[in-house]
């Protein structure tokens, strides 16, 4: 049977030691996040996910969701009860504003919990996850009345939320949407159209579902500039907060997917459903991007999450399964064979996983801190700086994090040999669940273009220059620390590759934008590799500082240093190859027309 | 609906122009393979697979196989009828010896057909595929009586065959097997034990199933030196060739797998089943390796096959789906959006797929020619040379071919965005089916060790030196051809990286074998990259020669040259990064003990 234990020790290391969350106690919300509180939240959150949600993960995959003829949807056995427990424990309220019933804790804790919930049960975690996205859009763009009407019950998870963007003929290119919003005399709109791929679009886990829907008002421009955002509750909400009549939105079918079977992915038919404009008319895309940016970070975390749970099971199998002998001679001569853990190629896959998950955990939690600082840093300048940095990192966290997450989950399945391919062992689910994260909330190709086409160029390249400056400072201080000079140099070379690639874009992309498009994916990967390298250098610094007085914890810091070294040896070399690919430009990539891709019999 | 057309034009290009099969007409079996015959076989074989087998692929995935209480197994609807057609058309007899009813054609044609069958329906193709493996073991090691009894009906596909190696506690390490073979007074053996993961182990498509089974005789050495091979028919065969009583081998269950649902993966219980020794006692492993080497090449072809069918569907979607605009301005201004084919990141994935599938097709067909030459070349020296080369290439074809095949299938799914994740569209199946090829017939980690631990060192490195010499000659001649000098130089650099990595192994692996194990996977990938580069250089040469007088075929040769250029630009750079990883050795990889991999809460 698969196992999962939330890696809370590592989370506490990052939060308390690497990020030093306590040092931000002067900022609003952070004052509550004392080490004893954060430790308790992390530990209890981890326990809840490991003990309550993980046991429903495999059965949820096997059972999936069922749509009934009346359009209602039943989630897998146990999901509803677990969501009741989740709601009662208040896990959804962690980082939500106090004004709407939240606990107002830093996002750092919210993100830590998101990792655990997605590792334990990604399909389950998407129900509150989508709700969080909808909450952030309503907070940013909703009217006071809308906030008061919807937010308290969404924050408490009595109701859940959804994001409705995609239609059968359009996903990435939202300018093409056809769903219509006709203004009504009472100030509401009648929403009509078909939305697809709506995660958590219909289910039996909450009393109401608050849909946020993109649609076009009559005469709106026929482009992304003509999209408006509407709030469309499944059940209308009376002025006293009680539920009124059923709205005209019905689940027409649920998709049969490769994974995340426990989450209902719905086709929703809107037939003159009653909706209300959120924010300004024709400014829906900006509102949607508020949800989207939060969601993209959440999806990046899913990449980490599936890698983590797959890794834990990979380790368990590698220590249990015995085949062959160590190349250096029998490790356990009295047994008939050694555990496969002794084989370098198995260790390679485990170390790749360990180096990725721990580095990615550091990156997502640092990203969460930046999100907090975007809102809460003391000065406008600090807030703007944090905003630019997390804007730059978001496509990297989403795109690189999920590409690698899928790769690591696949490798951990590989550790199992033939048993990895059998559903009973659970490894296939991690691969299948991880796969979606590369696709939704903007495919990773879109992330790469967001990074290279928008974020690199913003404000004259200020964000990427700030990133290089910060990396340079980290490298310079590490170089002075005994034992870290080699690693600092390795990272410096990789940063140099990224700088060269950046320069190449600057020199070429203006004349030929395809040169940018042709290298965007590779650039996103270089930046992911470099950024995780930076995280490892920071962790190595902390570990070096702590080694002297760590007592019983000494092995923890020693393994951090060893893993940092592995990361520099085995991840960074790809930066040079990726740069060379970028510098080959778009000529050979775009040389062939469509007839060259036809299969000739 | 997914589509598939066997890429016969490309196959004919490789067989007739790159390999110039006609030039081998002096060798036995090749004299029949005149261009008109080979073209007809390729075209008809392609048509059979595209028209008869592909339509059963998705339904076979959805239905899977069903085991009944009596141990019988029903294959998906249509499989039995299609296998009847397959048998009647004689597709299984192509490259089998005439003496047992085969057509005695070169393996080049057999491999070409194997690609088509696996693209069209991998789960189906495994039934005759496993039969071919069993046939080759019986041809090599069976007694005259066994050959006469079993081979004609196996070659004709009236009966199918299986390979029984794995047991619940052992797969890679066959020295651990527990299945017993007790000698009986009549010269037969009573076989008792449990075998798992037996592909095509039980089904309703043929009258009899001939199991080849590894087991231990009483008192045999407790290691791989104590394994013997037995032939165990599902129904005993009377002396007149008619079927006798049901043997004591029963399907206890079938596995619920990630993919290849149309193939029954069985647990087989042997309860004093009647079996007969094949070859010498305690020499079963060598006999098994005859099957295994054939099977590994077949599995490498599966990597190509899934990439190919996924690629064709990726192209279809990229040309059909419209989202956004080309970076260089609207490609089709009158439409509301351009086909996603215009986006460089989509083109990157398509070009990666095209460069891989066409290069890999060339490699597998060249590999097939080497297999033929192993048996049929004119001199002992030529035969030995071919044997050494295909021995070196086998783990590369299997390991690199299936790693990349899975990656390409995943990328083609990515082209579909959200629709790629929905089973109805068919892309998920290609990914799930491709996944097994990295695992079975020796995991890719085992392939890497076979390459680096055995094949590199064999005969003092003769095979790898021959490979480098051959590559050097190809590069030298290409350098003199107008338009190819750049590509020759790019490939030369990559070969240099492989040579440096080879040298590093020689200097380090003797003192520390873990240095070899730590780099084996990366070396297998360098060699795959270089070998496909060599194939592309050869194809580019042929294309350059033909361009002048190609007439209407000119675009075909032009796109070959453009794709060759893309391959050199975008695949070769990884060789340098992989070399650097190898040279980082095993120190950081093996530094941590098992306690460092425990999850601390």
Strand and helix layout:
2 copies of one chain form a homodimer.
Chain A: H1 8-18, H2 35-53, H3 57-63, E1 66-67, E2 73-74, H4 79-89, H5 107-141, H6 144-155, E3 159-164, E4 180-183, E5 189-199, E6 208-215, E7 228-233, E8 235-237, E9 243-246, E10 249-254, E11 265-278, H7 284-320, H8 344-376, H9 380-415, H10 427-437, H11 444-455, H12 458-479, H13 485-508, H14 513-547, H15 554-570, H16 574-583
Parallel strand pairs in A: 3-6
Antiparallel strand pairs in A: 1-2, 4-5, 5-11, 6-7, 7-11, 8-9, 10-11
Helix pairs in contact in A: 1-2, 1-8, 2-5, 3-5, 5-6, 5-7, 5-8, 7-8, 7-9, 7-10, 8-9, 8-14, 8-15, 9-10, 9-11, 9-12, 9-14, 11-14, 12-13, 12-14, 13-14, 13-16, 14-15, 14-16
Keywords (chains A, B): FAD, Flavoprotein, Oxidoreductase
Family (chains A, B): Belongs to the acyl-CoA dehydrogenase family.
GO molecular function (chains A, B): flavin adenine dinucleotide binding; oxidoreductase activity, acting on the CH-CH group of donors
